[in-house]
Amino acid sequence: MDVLTEALRWLNDPLNWTGSQGVLALTRTHLEISAVAVAAALVVALPAGLWLGHRGRGATVGVVVANTTRALPTLALLTLLAAAGWFGATATALACAVFAVPPILANAVTGVEGVEPDVRDAARGLGMSGGRVLWTVEVPLALPLIAAGIRTGAVQVLATVPLVALVGGTSLGTIVVSGFATQRYGKALAGGILVAGLCLLVEGLLALAERAVTPTGLRLRERAAASDARTDTRSRRRAPVAAAVRPGSNGAAPSP
Question: Which of 3, 82, 116, 164 has the fewest Cβ atoms within 10 Å of its own Cβ atom?
Answer without folding.
Answer: 116
